[in-house]
Structures are given as C-alpha cells and as structure tokens.
Amino acid sequence: MSADEFPFWLRTRSVGGTIIIELHGELDMLAHRELGPRVHALIGLAAADVVLDLRAVTFLDAGGIRLLLAVREHVAQRGGVLRLIRGTPRVSHILRIVRLDNSFTVLDTLPRALAEGPAVADDRRTPT
Predict the structure, then answer these.
(1) pLDDT tens string 4-47
(2) Is there a contact between 9 and 126 (Cβ–Cβ < 8 Å)?
(3) What pLDDT was estimated at residue 17?
(4) Domain STAS: where (predicted)?
(5) Which H or E run contains 85?
(6) What pLDDT does residue 128 have?
(7) 3-state secondary structure of 95
C-alpha cells in the first residue's frame, strides 16, 4: 500500500432531501481522522436526513465507533434523522458489544424510495 492509499473510502449520493454515505473498508482511528471532516462537510451541505451504509465496512474499532457517534451528534445538532444500514455480522456484533446497537436506527436495507429515487452521485473514492 502506498502512502496515498487508505484501507477505507466513501461514496456519496443524494436522493431528495437525504444524503446516503456508503462507507467502505476499515473504520479505525485513521478513518475517523481522515473521513470525519469529509463526512461532516457532506452533512453540512445536505438536508437533515442521513443514511450511513455500513454493508461494505470490513473492520470497526474504537476509532470507527467514534466516527459513527460524531456523525450521530452532528446530524442531531442539525435536527436531522440518522439511519444506519446494517453491516456485516462482525460489525453488528461490535455495535452490540459496546451497547450502541439500540442507539441508532438500524435498517437491513436501503429504503425503496431511496434505492429507486433519482440520485445525484459523488462517485469518487475519497478518503477526505
């Protein structure tokens, strides 16, 4: 892995008043530091509703949990609604262990209206 490659990235798109942020790879302290500002900037530009898609997250530690909590706080400050799309069993297990599984609205899949709605995509693989 070169110095400019990260083991994580995000993809975003907007449907109506909702921003969908797909998180990919390893969510750790480095991801929190590198992705956090980008995610917060996206939330600042978007409407109040945010969906974090965790299906492609392969690893989650304290840094990744801090990222999720920071997003939850930022969305709440804007009066918005945050929903998570359930990740792998490993990621779900970690959220259960730290007792955060009930602190988020967790969905199994993207709601049909968001999956089928017209989207404005930011399809870049970007750590920041």
Answers:
(1) 578 899 999 888 888 999 999 999 999 999 999 999 898 887 66
(2) yes
(3) 83
(4) 8-117
(5) strand 82-85
(6) 45
(7) helix
How long a stretch of residues is the chain? 128
Distance CA(71)–CA(61), nearest Å, equals 16
The residues, ordered by sequence, that sit 6+ positions from 71 with a Cβ below 8 Å of its Cβ are: 39, 40, 43, 50, 52, 82
Q: Which domains does the chain have, with CATH numbers?
A: 8-126 (3.30.750.24)
d(CA 113, CA 104): 20
Using one digit for the tens of pLDDT, what is the confidence trace for 41-89?
988 876 678 999 999 999 999 999 999 999 999 999 988 899 999 999 9
**CA dist., res. 50 & res. 59, Å (int):** 21
As a whole number of angstroms, the distance between CA 18 and CA 9 comes to 20
